[in-house]
Amino acid sequence: MMHGALEDITKAVGNTPIVRLNKVTAGLDVEMYVKCEYLNPGGSHKDRLAANLLRRAEEEGLKPGGTILEATSGNTGASLALLAAVRGYKCIFVMPDKMSQEKISNLRAFGAKVVVCPTAVEADDPRSYYQVAKRLAVETPNCFYANQYHNPGNPEAHYLSTGPEIWAQTQGEIDVFVAGLGTGGTISGTGKYLKEKKADIKLVGVDPVGSLYYDFVKSGRITKPFSYKVEGIGEDFFPSTMNLKILDDIVRVDDKECFLMTRDLTRLEGLFVGGSGGAAVAGAIKWAKEHGKKGQRIMVFLCDAGQKYVSKIFNDDWMRENGFLDEQAGLGTVRDVLGARYRQKLVSANVSTTVRDAITILKEGGISQLPIVDGGKLRGIVAEVDLLRHLVSGKKTLESPVGEIAEGDYATVTPDTKIELLQSALADAKVAMVTENDELVGIVAKIDLIDFLARAGQS
Ligand SMILES: Cc1ncc(COP(=O)(O)O)c(C=O)c1O
Are the CB atoms for 188 and 246 separated by under 8 Å? Predict the structure, then answer.
């Protein structure tokens, strides 16, 4: 072996650089750094996951010549495909159709087979990519199903690799770790290791508007997910690889914030990252503005690279078509729909309000559903039908607190959410709750949106 050479490319996984952010953080009094996982040979942090999953599979008897199968949004596939090429495995990848063509071509370049499935179906629909992958795993002989959403080897990869690496590189000089939330492997594994080393380290997750995680962490409710454009983060179900309990805080970002920050990271900092990198930094800056302390050292995880997104995030036409560029007026935002109702006193009930009083509030307000709050923070919604169901079942009485029967049958948006996204939120949910810093500041029903658009059309 030549001095300084690696045995093969898989040995180049990890040891990614940590770099200080200088321009996008102007005005903040924290120190912000990024962990450049996008410089891994397979293009993302998923190289660590693939290496660990394959190590475990080989220990359990997988032999070269066998097939690696995965339901992937791309990056895990790229990492597994690279490992498979070096180690002599076949690969089949099942992925949702919202994924970029570049990601699909990237997998095929390694000789992998790619099966594309519809995105607009529920996770338990037999056509969904999760279900198709499960079926292929059973039907293919000598097959290893990587199953990144439910394989404990996923968070373990980050516990064994990312966590110790960050700790060693920084010599423990890290106060906050911020990462986008997908399968949760990164935050759960890295976070576990870092917390073991430094109990008061803060773990902050970043979630896109439309995903389930944010509301669940903030209010314990499973709300209505809706689709968004940023790739790799946010989920419409709860993977078992995600340990939400480990989080100290969670921040929500919308597509526009993610993509504008992605472009800034590239143009101002020379960091050519994908949308989830922009999301993580935008989320970290938001968190730092509210909770950051002078001199605090915040590390943000940058997962994948920008090349795959040149026809989207880095393409002005695509950005404009989707209303993500400022020069594009678009239809407006949720704030415009709320108009004078923004932050106006809302009819709501406290978690401790009795069912009896909730009925009176519904009657007096002439409304059919009531937001339930606790100290101004949204905790759920109660509709007439819920009250009826609980009273008829005999499980609750007129004296029960409504907090106990509140449901999550709504989507949540922010005042800055674009109307195009609000429309997608209202496609499935009855109403959209508008929250700002977790406080309920308005409610939008389908009819409010229709009314707004009709009025806009007349002017
Ligand atoms: C681009 C990108 N960013 C972020 C993530 C989230 O990482 P994790 O699954 O470890 O939570 C993923 C995972 O699929 C990803 O592909």
Answer: yes
Tracing tokens 């989507």 back to the chain, one arrives at: 411
Q: Which two tokens stand for residue 261?
A: 């920050």
The rounded distance, in Å, linking the Cα atoms of 36 and 270 is 12
Q: Establish whether residue 304 lines the binding site of ligand 1, counting it when its CB lies within 6 angstroms of any ligand atom.
A: yes
Cα distance from N-terminal residue to C-terminal residue, the chain: 75
Q: Is the pTM of this model over 0.90?
A: no
Contacts of 193 by beta carbon, 8 Å cutoff, 6+ apart: 158, 159, 162, 163, 164, 167
List of domains in the chain? 9-41+153-321 (3.40.50.1100), 46-145 (3.40.50.1100), 334-458 (3.10.580.10)
Q: Which residues of the chain have a pLDDT value below 50?
A: none
Of 276, 309, 312, the one to substitute when testing ligand 1's pocket (max ligand atoms within 8 A of C-beta) is 276
Nearest CA owner, ligand 1 atom 6: 182
Count CB-CB contacts under 10 A for residue 236. 14
List the strands of the sheet with 176-180, edge to edge: 18-20, 31-36, 297-302, 176-180, 202-208, 249-253
Q: Is the CB of residue 378 less than 8 Å from the CB of residue 411?
A: no
Q: What is the pLDDT of residue 71?
A: 82
Q: What stretches of 318-359 adopt beta strand conformation (E)?
A: 349-350
Identity of the amino acid at 451: D
